[in-house]
Amino acid sequence: MKILLLGKNGQVGWELQRALAPLGELLALDRSQADLSEPESLRAVITNFKPNWIVNAAAYTAVDKAEDEKDLAYTVNADSVGVLAEEALKLNAWLIHYSTDYVYDGDKQGEYVETDDVNPLSVYGKSKLAGENNIREVGCKYLIFRTSWVFAAKGNNFAKSMMNLAKDRNELKIVADQFGAPTSAELIADVTSFCIQRLIGMNEQLSNDRVGTYHLVSDGKATWHSYAQYVISKATSLGERYSVSTQSILPITTDEYPLPAVRPKNSKLSTDKLKESFGISLPHWSMYVDRMLEEII
Ligand code: NDP
């Protein structure tokens, strides 16, 4: 079995290198070897290797910058993803791709399910939705995993930003009216590997029935504010010293912290479909935050 992994040095890509390696012959590429800003160049990469699985962890993820770099965001997140789907179809390979809670507008009360209407508020969210739509239009075998608030020991993320800021400031003001689930890249990679193994063990009819879009997020919910408090409290208990205490992490509203890209207020995604289709459970986000902090401190 041959697996092509794109974006090997991102948060999710790094963990995928570990999780996919035991499954077969893994070719893991970075931006210099497979550049999604040059969609047509990807065809030769794929036809030369002839993978059975293409796992795409590469993406334009600079959410705010995307408001000014619309063309590049669409080329990477939509056009290239369409090319991956076309080449997967030619080889009868599976394409595994990651998308985002930012395809929703966040106005729903309660958890989103995969069949809910999408209405992205940002260029990033729109470009990711366009990528999803390109896959569905091409009609290769695919899994699209919509995830949220990704963190990992390697790479940049909210938890690490909070730890850095807490060393320099006496007070942090963090948004407390957006809800979501911090999700570990380690979990995303492990679930991806697990789903591949499940699909391999199924007959064609059953595996084809699993083609589709799934929410893949940790259990539990947080606000950015409660997430920041958790990170600083746990890191302090592990011996880190900060000028900020959990009491001096203050809640503010989204309106008090304007950013170029509008975020959904409610990013809580139901994972029932993924759990039922693949027979897995998804642990609480705090377990993985604890693991990351113990790893990096
Ligand atoms: P990262 O930003 O950590 O990694 C993205 C990777 O894509 C990097 O390795 C980067 O390369 C690579 N990349 C960017 N542009 C190109 C390009 N033109 N050609 C090739 N590679 C490129 O992202 P995550 O691992 O966090 O995200 C994985 C997936 O999850 C993405 O699809 C993302 O949209 C989605 N997602 C992420 C969320 C988050 O909070 N981070 C939330 C919801 C969904 P380089 O290392 O050279 O910069």
What does this structure look like?
- This protein has 297 residues and is an alpha/beta fold.
- The protein has 10 helices and 12 strands.
- The strands form 4 sheets. Strands 2-1-3-4-5-10 form a 6-stranded parallel β-sheet, sandwiched between helices. Strands 6-9 form a two-stranded parallel ribbon.
- α2 packs parallel to α3 (70-91) and α8 (224-237) crosses α10 (285-296).
- Bound molecules: NADPH dihydro-nicotinamide-adenine-dinucleotide phosphate.
- NADPH dihydro-nicotinamide-adenine-dinucleotide phosphate binds at residues 7, 9-13, 30-31, 34-37, 57-61, 76, 98, 100, 128, 147-150, 155, 185.
Brief rundown of the structure:
With 297 residues, the chain is an alpha/beta fold.
The run of helices and strands is EHEHEHEHEEHEEEHHEEHEHH
Structural class: alpha/beta
Shape, per Cα inertia axes: globular
Number of distinct beta strands: 12
Bound molecules: NADPH dihydro-nicotinamide-adenine-dinucleotide phosphate
Q: Oligomer, anyone?
A: single chain
> Sheet bearing the most strands, described?
6 strands, parallel
Strand order of the largest sheet: 2-1-3-4-5-10
CA radius of gyration = 19 Å
Distance, first to last CA: 37 Å
Count of separate DSSP helical elements: 10
Determine the fraction of residues in helical runs and give it as a percent range.
Answer: 40-55%
- Regions with little confidence, pLDDT below 50 for 5+ residues: none
Percent of sequence in beta strands: 15-25%
Q: Average pLDDT value?
A: 98
